[in-house]
Specification:
With 139 residues, this protein is an alpha+beta fold. It has three helices and five strands; from the N terminus they run ββββαβαα.
């Protein structure tokens, strides 16, 4: 089992890694070496993740979820295969950790009576200032 987050893990068979030619840094090596790391994680195989967190993970992942219900991540910023693999795994762990955090529910509040009074007083004061600017005819 591979630990993805505290209390969340997946069997090694659910994780698949492949390597391809990268477009990132590496000079002439880019054309010769397969340094880009592609990672697939089968979502039904993930153990220890509450259903609400799994729903948040699916929302956060967006288009990175394939038709086969796998999460697909790529990393090609580093020059070596190993570092790109580590980058992809750390991105996966960050995504899962972010999905595990439940959003804090918003509590509706209303302004206090004093705040309403201050607001209306300032509006009234502003109106008096503006009405004082008007030119009144002397009859």
């Amino acid at each position: 089992m591979i630990e993805l987050a505290p209390g969340v893990s997946a069997p090694e068979s659910a994780l698949r890694l492949a390597y391809a030619r990268s477009g990132g840094p590496g000079g002439q090596n880019v054309n010769k070496l397969n340094t880009k790391a592609e990672l697939w994680l089968s979502l039904p195989a993930v153990v220890g993740m509450p259903p609400a967190a799994m729903l948040r993970l699916r929302t956060l992942a967006g288009r990175r979820i394939t038709r086969a219900d796998e999460l697909h991540l790529t990393a090609q910023t580093e020059r070596t295969q190993e570092r790109n693999r580590e980058t992809a795994l750390s991105r996966l762990r960050e995504l899962i950790a972010e999905a595990m955090i439940a959003p804090k529910p918003r509590r509706r509040t209303k302004p206090s009576r004093a705040a309403k009074r201050r607001r209306l007083e300032s509006k009234r004061h502003r109106g008096e200032i503006k009405s004082g600017r008007r030119e009144r005819p002397d009859w």
